[in-house]
Design brief:
The chain is 31% helix and 16% strand. It has 8 helices and 8 strands; from the N terminus they run ββααβαβαβαβββααα. A hairpin with a 4-residue loop joins strand 6 and strand 7. Helix 4 (105-114) packs parallel to helix 6 (163-171). The radius of gyration is 19 Å and the shape is globular.
Length: 201
Amino acid sequence: MKAVKRVVGTVCPLDRADVDTDQIIPKQFLKRIERTGFGPFAFNDWRYDEAGRPRDDFPMNKPEHEGASILLTGPNFGCGSSREHAPWALQDAGFEAIIAPSFADIFRSNCGKIGLLAAELPGDDVRRLFDLVAADPTAEVTVDLPSQTVSAPDFEASFDIDAHTKHCLIQGLDEIGLTLEHDDAIAAFEAGRPGWLPTAS
């Protein structure tokens, strides 16, 4: 997993509450077992019309938000099913951080496991960011994980994150990486097992 310490970039504003995982990545696209390839289908039903043409009014399709690395959105983002494909799709679409007033617990956990930073700010601060981006879509926003701050021109706010997730993101540790941190202890345990027991090989 790629380590995440600081995300700096422009913002794509999706001013909607209760965005569920089926809107983030609709069920008909859950056919891949890799984590890649889902980005083009993120928000498919909102992003494209029935003929597959991009909708001009959807934020991701607006020229001023092209290449945005931060998604700004409303409360309870990622609710619904527990599908891991939702954060996969957002990361594959180019987002490195998501800012919202609140996240569904499983979605937030799934983000942390792949290196996608979910920063939860108070609703008033999120609204100020929406206003800032509306006034200047080119405004650069910084999400700094070590200091747990979000900053932009004339804006600064702090966010909370649990210590375990913060450690994993900064060190670039997925669940396999976490296990390998205990490689010496695992090797010592295996060396002390009776010889008649099956081995990992």
